[in-house]
Design a protein that fits this description.
By secondary structure, the protein is mainly β. It has no helices and eleven strands. Helices cover about 0% and strands about 55% of the residues.
């Protein structure tokens, strides 16, 4: 049973870099055909896919966020992480990590991040 848990700061100041980590249990992040995603939902808006890192370690980014986003992994800890730079209040959202395998998605519970001074 794949489980994911996000961790990170609840409050970030404008212009700073947001760092989030997702800890995965029940499956190795290097297992073939698994993809590990970051997705967010701003208040009152829909889900926005941000980035993924493949089982191979290859990253992919949303074009609209690519210039500010970096995704990485630590296979020794079975974790993957997201960094979002130069944040503004518009980056306030619930941030989710999710693992995908074919049509199956496994979601973390989400973590609220607020950008405010």
């Amino acid at each position: 049973h794949v489980q994911l848990q996000e961790s990170g700061p609840g409050l970030v100041k404008p212009s700073q870099t947001l760092s989030l980590t997702c800890t995965v249990s029940g499956e190795s992040i290097t297992t073939t055909d698994y993809y590990w995603n970051w997705i967010r939902q701003p208040p009152g808006k829909g889900l926005e896919w941000m980035a993924l890192i493949a089982y191979s370690g290859s990253p992919d980014y949303s074009p609209s966020l690519k210039s500010r986003t970096s995704i990485s992994r630590d296979t020794s800890k079975n974790q993957f992480s997201l960094q979002l730079s130069s944040v503004t209040p518009e980056d306030t959202a619930v941030y989710y990590c999710a693992g995908s395998y074919g049509s199956r998605y496994y979601w973390g519970q989400g973590t609220q991040v607020t950008v405010a001074s």
